[in-house]
## 1
Amino acid sequence: MQRPTLNSRRPFISGGRLLIIACGLAMTLFFCALSLNRPAFLAHFDDRFFDGLITDGVPPKGYSSPVIVALDDDSLARFGRWPWPRALVARLLTRIAEQKPASVGIDVIFAEQELPASGEHQSVTTGKLSPGDLALAEALNSGPFVLGFEFTFPPQASPTVDQRLLHPLNIVSLRKTGASDPRQRLWQATGVIGSLPEFTRRVAISGFVNAAMGQDGILRRMPVLIEHNGKVYPSLALATVLRTVGAREALLESDWSGESTLSVGNRHIPLDDRGRLLLRFRGWQGETKPISAAALLQGRVPQDTLKGKVVFVGATATGMGEAVVTPMNSLLAGVKIHAIAAEDILNSDFARPGPWIYRLLAILVLGILSTLICVGMPVIPGAGVLGIAAAGAWQGSVWLFRNDGLFLSPVLPLLLLLVNFSLLSLIHSIFVEKRAHRQTQDLAMTRDFIMTSLASLAEIRDTETGAHILRTQRYLLILCQELSRNPRFHSLLSNEKIELISKLAPLHDIGKVGLPDHLLRKTTGFTAEEYEEVKKHALYGRDAIAKAELRVGAYDDELLQYAKDIAYSHHERWDGKGYPEGLAGEQIPLVARLMALADSYDAMVSKRIYKEPVPHEAAVCIIMEARGVQFDPDIVEAFLNVEDQWRQIAQDLVDSDEVEILAK
């Protein structure tokens, strides 16, 4: 079967690259689908990244923050626990109105008539307002107040809903080409908890106080619009701003990219598809601390402190009102949350959610980039480039938010980078490993070919047959395997070294190439001078390998060292009477001692131009007699355990005219 050539492997490599590209693009498309659906676990990571962005938000100079008039612990300590008498509340609102604020959002719902004092039971049962309620109604009529109410979302609407007087927003919805109706996904309320109609009639506008916690219980988004019975209502924060700027109309529009914008006058408020505002939380504490209601009631607040300001009235006292968890790692009273939302709107300082098209483009760019890098670059440089890309994506998201208020989370794109790099690097490594394995096989085949070719070169000039090379290889393989069972040699003869030694056997007589033909083909015994010349083949063999080693710069190579030991020392004897150096015992390299026995046995049982073969049994006897004299005793012991296998090898790989002798 014809082995593949170098050119035939190119489709294999190209196929690997095509697989990497296909997997990278498939993973990128999968993450694109995730970005459109935004599962809960990804939304959680996006929210946590947002929390990190706003923790160091510092309001710029000239930042306008609402003022909070707080029903705080000091106020309750001075004027009693809540609910206060309505006359006291009316006096507080009157004091606020006297300071001429721009607008006042009230985060308190007066849903019931005041409880009657002693002797006033009849006025309540007849439906008449108490003096305190009348005073509160007159106070609401005296200033730019905005009342709060709360929407409910039970399956069925409350039967008292129609009795409440609300102030819907005069809103026009506009959808651009390719966009969906911006009112389609607004929250749909079914019931209302509001103040008494006698109070709501006295204000020009009102707004809902509902908040929207995330799945982790942290408030990051505040609903600005909610729909009820086909009409759209503003939040308390938006209603207070509308009262400030004197606007009663708004435009809600959406475009094909998924952005929704509520336009009020010259302010354009970015909303998500549920009508929520992503809070910036910058300057959330306000320019000044909240003003205590007790200080206003006692006249301790300088005149004009609230003049022209946007004011919110609400509870901050311990155990009063609803405290919510914020990304600022602190609990904030509900009235402060309304102030934060109004602050963002007043300053046009918004955290704009990134449209889906931006998220999709970021994923496509980083997904394609990671795929191309995994295809075209090694793993370590590719990891460095992707690390730089990841850092750039992270810092780019931070820069966009701080400079433009655009919140584009890098979490999903960075997760794609990690998954793509891990998966594609694994695939790349598999193909590289296969290619390296194939190259290793090719190198091993080339090495065997070169060694066999060198041995064949010596064979051309020598009288030995090619079967001699194959026999000695197999002798060595079996002998090394048997010797490795001896504890003394177990660590020296691993499976890899055994295979290496057996493949080096053909090089033991490579030095004979340097001998003249009349010596190689002589049929009679050598003279003393001729024998000295023949012994030089060991030196020739070692020097030939050493020169090749020097020319290619292959220093300290185990394979070449074994080859030199075999070629140079396989005629050394255990008793020190061998050549070329007369080494004795374990001074002789192990591979040379092994080769000496294999070469001697094969020389005895094989026919040569100068002799006839001897039977196997005779060769075994000669080797046994030479134990401890010519051969290593341990190696002879291992040989005796496998001598039957050697006999079979000699018979299987023998020239036809030798069969009869070996079979005896």
## 2
Amino acid sequence: MHIAPIRAVALSAGLLTLWGCAAPQPAAAPAAGAGPVTPKVNRLVLAVEPTTAESNVLRQLSTTTAWPIFPMYEWLIEVDPATGKNVPMLSTGWKLEPDGASYRFSLRSGVRFHGDFGDFSAQDFAAAVAEKTKPDAQGQSVAYWRQLLDKVEVVTPQETVLRLKRPDSQFLDYVSRQIPGTEVFSKAAMDKLGEPTPASGPLPGTGSYQFKERQIGQYIRYERAPYKHWRVQPDFPEVEFRWMKEASTRMASLLAGEVQMASLPTDLQKQAESRGYTSLPGKVPGFRVFVDFRCCVLSDPKNAKSPFVQPGSPLEDKRVRKALSKAVNLEELNKGLFGGKGEIMYNNPFHPTRPGWNPDWQKQFAAEYGYDVAAAKSLLADAGFGPGNPLKVNSVIAQTQGFSASGDVIDALANYWRLAGLTVELVTPPSQQVQDSYQNHVVFRSTSSTLWGGIVNFGSNLASSGRQVMNVYEADEVLTEVGRTLDETKIEPLWKKEGDILFDAHKFLPLFWLPVEIVVDPKVVSGWLYPGSLTGNWTHLEHIKATR
């Protein structure tokens, strides 16, 4: 990939317009009354779970660790917080080029960078893409960019063309807030200041908030940009993510008034609500919990007949995977650990609001996945396991991002499986190398992602992370076709075909779609318009409204 300036050219009249100047604009924050508001606190503090890694260098952050720096950045494309749809942000519109693969973006003028680093231009976006694709860049989408992108052409300061090697129906998500990686920073700042350090803070962005300070392992703080922002003027002068691993600590801090917003598990959330606190939900379905089978990795991902890297896992047998699903009492689990708020997930990561939904999955769910201990034992017996030869599986103990009660769920799942006759060992992964060698492991997951991201990141050879999880070769073939299809009428049946393959293969053990909610002090916070469907959950802080 290289970045090449070219001379300005007129847009061809024959270009296919996907979204343009008439595209819907981001939803405005909910009105809380007329005129300015004086918040009850100068610094709004959100008590949330810590990320697994912290850095001020954007390329060192992955999909799950980048969200804490989002308040200071913007993207070419925004995720509307009310609908989850892609809408213009730093771009004003985009068009598909005549080659049927590349995209031409018109960029917004007059958008200031924090500090004295001028206005946003195409050169800044080109620098963000170059940073994303450096040899030491991390994250699930890095391989995607390296495989797909040919070059970034800077046409004028307010126009750029991204030349792609092939058509890709998901590309617009990868230049949006949907998928971290193309946060726009100041190239002038990078040229002047060099690589960020823990002490320097990240490179300046264009967001409503600018970086103030951070203490690794403790907090990261932002302050409102000291000028009228082009998009949203936040109510609160400062916001802070404060890392608190224990839910009980977050609860105590909320009750003591040390924090004004807190991520809490269902039981503590109910207690807080009984004391007058309020829960604010995200607007877009996206957050879900499920079990990922870690086995069955093909030695040659392009050859369906190639042997597994580590053959012999009992999880290779679909009857075993089906038995693990049928051993779990979803109704009891939902009531006991999710407060009854969980919506059964019939086929991860498909949902009735997403493309490719097949109502037959819901009709067939009871027979294929529904709770039936006797049926689970019978399936295990058919697979050669029983009292004299119990099935042994390793359940990984790991805190999941954005979900406070993961430890309780892992324990509950292990107990269900033991009641079905399994021997379950709870293991803690000490390193990424150990994770890469999994061959008989089950991993509880909680995440938000798009339909595409949910499949690619948890079971496909189309991304680097796919080599660590169970491969379904037929599903990869369909997913490849989805990625190369721009015709919406053709994508829908392809998604349905993909879902049918995953459902029949018992690729995942689906659990629930969950509402994303944060508990707030209503004396300080009156509302918050945020999707809750993006990785990390806590995005769009600029839309938090102060109580009058």
